[in-house]
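Teaching assistant here, posting this on the class forum so everyone can see the example we discussed in section. The complex has two components, and the goal was to see what a joint structure prediction looks like when all of them are supplied at once.
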Amino acid sequence: MILKRPAWQSAVRLGLLGLVLTWSLFPIGLVVMASVKPAVTIFEVPPRLTFHPTLANYVELYRRWPEFFGTLRNSLLITLGATGLTVIVSSAAGYVYSRFRSRALTASAFFMVGIRMFPPIVITLPLFPAANMLGLMDTHLLLILLYATFFVSLCTWVMRAFIDQIPREMEEAASVDGASLTQTLVRVTLPLAAPGMIASAVFVFVFSWNEFLFAFIFTTTRAKTAPLILSEMLGAVTGVDWGAVFAAATIQLVPILIFVLLVQRHLIIGLTAGSIKE
Amino acid sequence: MISPVLLMLAGFIFFPSIYVGWLSFTQSSFGRATQWVGCGNYLALLADPYFWRALLNTIIVVNVVVYAELFLGLGIALLFAGGVPWPRLMVSIVLAPYAISEVVAVVMWKFMFEPTVGMANHWLTRVGLGEIEWTVNPTHALVLIVLLAVWHHLPFTFVILYTARLTIPRELYEAAGIDGAGPFQIFRRITLHLLMPAILVALLFRYIFAFRLFSEVWLLTQGGPARTTEVLAVYLYRAAFRYHEFGLASATGWAMVIISLLIGLYYLRVIYRRMFASPA
């Protein structure tokens, strides 16, 4: 597979690869490692690679920011809610865009893509008083709806690309055998479109778990998410308690990092289907 | 079956954006009746030096970030396409920053560049470059913001270009080699030419998204010192949620929309031209 190259070229390529990997991983590794270091050695330069791992920072986090664990729960609820909602509505819409053609549909497709260009911060202006009025301020529901809304266009597109690849004949065969439309969709189309649903779910999941802006503006206590409390820890007037911040950051990032690495293939397929496909 | 999607988009983006358009012609704040002021907000915006500063910062940061990502992303994509050991694992590692929250990314970079104690500053001083004084020097702060943004968003550009590069058939390169084309010619005539649609897509998306840059700036500098590192989104946030001038904030919002639309249209036009020009 790999072409024959002069030795010096291979060496240069390996060197470059090393640089790329360091660039990607160094900041992450640094924080994860610092989270299990004794507080006094955190700022040692160069960072010490051998040390007695300690959970002191995690204990400190639990002692000084017990709230953090509640925000993790909020983040998880909101993420799951937004992911479920997005996958359901965009699968339905993607199916329609894939199987039917009409001028109204084309127009609505342009609307869907065009509207997504709108910067999210701009719509916080009218939503802020509106959410206040409707009593949606600081609720999980509001964030679920917002996160889902900002991903339904992309996910509808991804779903459409995937459903396009499923032969219509399979659906027709099912209906000849007496299946209703709902049965056909649930038993035939959706299982075949599962990779698309996974790809869509990954996008929303990662976004909702990590999102800061909407959480910052629309939540204060009850629905506060993990990234938001992390930002508060970072901006604490008493000075940053780095040990606790690293512990919290590690707890926040490790699960999602593992998740992304596991579903990497779906993520790549989805990104390509969503952006290249017209 | 598409109605839920359209309802969500209409309810949470379309109607609010129209309402923002109306707000931008009024003066309003909490608990006060809105008052029609015509183009007053836009004129106030144009007369505000802080707005121009924010606009300039945004344009500089967005351009540097987007092109830096493009060059690095293209470089890494070609390096990977040329064959690397354990490709799947390596791609995963390059993708890793995609999984990281903006807030956590700020934690990482702030820690490395912490004044006097951060290790990056320590090393920079060691090699004689001097510290990055991002807490006091606006240029240094913008440099740090650019570094952070490139680190965070490089995976996207990389994936788009890498997957596009993998679809170029090997035979093309073999044929070019037989015809005696040099490496530079091969790169320009085959690689770059066939990657152009993917490059434009990556550029378009990254322009639109980079334009919204908010969290990184807010969490690192809050636009300070003395509002010198503000970008448009931070300017808008401050106008709305600190000074409660919703009219001015709305005008900023529409200014952002119009500017990013113009950029988007420009790139779309280039994309279409390319597609019609090369019937490949």
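For the discussion questions: The mean pLDDT of chain A is 87. Chain A has one domain: 53-276. Think about how each of these relates to the inputs above.
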